[in-house]
Amino acid sequence: MHPLALIFLIIGVPAALALAYIFIRGSHSLRRYVLTRIVLTIPMVLILASLVFLVLRVIPGDPVTSALGPKGSPEVKERLRTNLGLNEPLFIQYGSFLGDVLTLDLGNAMTLAQRPVVDELGERLPATLELIIPASALALGIGLIFGTWAAVRRKKTSDYGFRLYSVAIYAMPVFWLGLLFQLLFGVWLGWTPTGGRIEATLGATVDRTTNMLLVDSVLHGNWEAFRSVLHHMILPTLTLGLILSGVFLRLTRINVIETLQEDYVAAARARGIRERVITYSHALKNAMIPVITLIGLQVAILLGGAILTETVFSWPGMGRYLVDRITARDFTAVQGSIVMFALFVALISLAVDIIYSLLDPRVKY
Amino acid sequence: MTNTVLYSVRDLSVEYATRGGLVHAVDRVSLDIHKGEILGLVGESGCGKSTLGKALMRMIEPPGRITGGKLLFDGRDLMELAGPEMRQVRGGRIGMVFQDPMTSLNPIQKIVDHLTETIQAHEPNVSTAQARERSEELVTRLGIRDERIDDYPHQFSGGMRQRIMIALALALRADLVIADEPTTALDVIVEAQFLDLIRELRAEFDLTIVLITHNIGVVAEIADRVAVMYAGRLVELGSVYRVFDETAHPYSRGLLRSVPNIDLDEGELYKMEGAPPNLLAPPPGCKFHPRCPEVMEICPGVEPELLPLESGHNVSCWLYQTQPDRQEEGIRG
């Protein structure tokens, strides 16, 4: 099966189950809300795709000039342009692109081997997922645990320490932290590799199913590759995860401080509930509602951060692919990547909204 | 109501550290709470009655602090208990009902989870199913259909939530319930129903209740005894009949006269002169003297003690007490 189809299946099955739950148990208004959101995703993606299409045609340069440079003869360039369909009227190009988007085909890339864009993305998207899923888990973990920790010890030394950490880490550019880590752990200490997803010699030994190397090496029992992948993941995950953890920490801290002052917390104390239970089960759970909302808003930032992290760590994911293809003015590849990003962001924010409504019984849509 | 003392408070003081200095929210209060009684604790806003209620559970949060006194509950001084022991008292022996039932329940926790969590915090051996069964019985007793405990707080009305708060206070068969303005957020009809329920529950569960309120009407209706607080001090304490019919302290008199009374045609409502004192810099001597219509020479100088006027009726006022040193100077009263 195509890796992209497989990934969307992996995301899609739990999403479908959640949707089924909402449609069976949820209120009428929730059902309508979710349905509206799903339907609205379509125009959102189309509008974004159209914008990208337009912008790519407006900025100077095209795939042919980028590939051949000033040296290419005008006849060759003209022939290549005709072959790529760039000499067609704009609305014809636009029409065929929209058709591609609607059939989820996305066309062929315009440079290099002119492979289908879906195949290229099928190799890159899993790599990016393998970076951003553990990174956001790390960020969320650090944020929730230490944010709560700081809130409980408000105005004590450790609280000031965590606040300083979160501001400093938030202000730090991703690539700079990445370079520092490479220098420290990769070069001076020699503990970790400084780039790539897997040792070059092992890469070929992994049978590809999902193109997420960690998953594939487990699926096929290739433990040597598994260790190598883990080893390569450490620095990029740490870089992206730490950068994102600052916001989560601050937001968790301030929300836990707020919920700890709520009447129901005092009421729980008056019932003799343990302080630990009050902090984690009453205060943190309530405080998590806005934090979960932030995750939805952070997905876009996360993808942006992933682009820089991938560039620093030579991680062959969506981010690096997009940067390369923009430089090469590969119209179809860029359009396809953006559509994929848009779908992804839309899916995540929908998922966040659903989680939100399940977490907070008061939410009515 | 018996005369057995359940809770004996001795010289309790609570201070809050603020930017402006120390606020003596509760100032050397001594009070006996009898088993089975409903004790009304009344006073203006900011007189320290809520702080006293919290201090009875040793639940003063920083910047507040209990600075002195004894809390002798059922023979033990609660001030000497370690954290886990104190936790067993809270919710186990002493329950609390808060002012605002809208915000006193965790919005994302089902009612049943509030109840089972409380039961299991005190009796870890009780299974969740058993705790659920007990919770169902309890809410049914309080007039809520048992299947509704699977709902969330926002699906309940204010009166129902307040009954849930009571159920939570009673989940472990507490001896003493401290109710801090429990009816303030309720409308008058629900309030009346709630007071009836309190009365029934007192008989049924052998409860002792401290009812903190600024609503004199509620106290008159339900309490056995009344304690009047002013500026962190207890100024009058006695049975409802004594305090209401033979009000001794000038402050209590003013307080009672400020209550609208439909039977009396007094025209304009009585308004007490002046404002409650600034507790950062309370007046010397009797704290009520700047507003007192019957102020005497001694009042600004020496603070009166809370002493018996008659059996079961104590008052802290120089009008009723022999003044030190100056008895021969002829003072009215």
What does this structure look like?
The complex is a heterodimer of chains A (365) and B (333). Chain A has 365 residues and is an all-alpha fold. Chain A contains 15 helices and no strands. Chain B is an alpha/beta fold and 333 residues long. Helix content of chain B is 28%, strand content 24%. Chain B has nine helices and twelve strands. Chain B has helices at residues 49-56, 83-89, 111-122, 128-141, 158-170, 188-205, 216-222, 240-245, 250-257, and strands at 5-18, 21-34, 38-42, 64-73, 76-77, 94-97, 176-180, 208-213, 225-230, 233-239, 307-310, 313-315. The radius of gyration of chain B is 21 Å and the shape is globular. The two termini of chain B are 34 Å apart. In chain B, 41% of the residues are buried.
CA-based shape of chain A? globular
Molecular shape of chain B: globular
Our estimate of the beta-strand percent of chain B is 15-25%
The major sheet of chain B is characterized as: 8 strands, mixed
Question: Residue share in helices of chain B?
Answer: 25-40%
Distance between the termini of chain A: 38 Å
List low-pLDDT spans of chain B.
Answer: 327-333
Number of strands of chain A: 0
Write the H/E string of chain A, N to C: HHHHHHHHHHHHHHH
Residue-averaged pLDDT of chain A: 85
Instruction: Kindly name the structural category of chain B.
Output: alpha/beta
**Whole-Å distance between the termini of chain B?**
34 Å
| Percent in strands of chain A | under 5%
The quaternary organization reads as: heterodimer
Largest interface: A-B, 22 and 30 residues
Order of strands across the main sheet of chain B: 6-7-8-3-9-10-12-11
* Sheet with the most strands, sense and barrel status of chain A: none
What Rg of chain A do the Cα atoms give? 24 Å
User: Helix fraction of chain A?
Assistant: over 70%
Tally of contiguous helical segments of chain A: 15
* DSSP helical segment count of chain B: 9
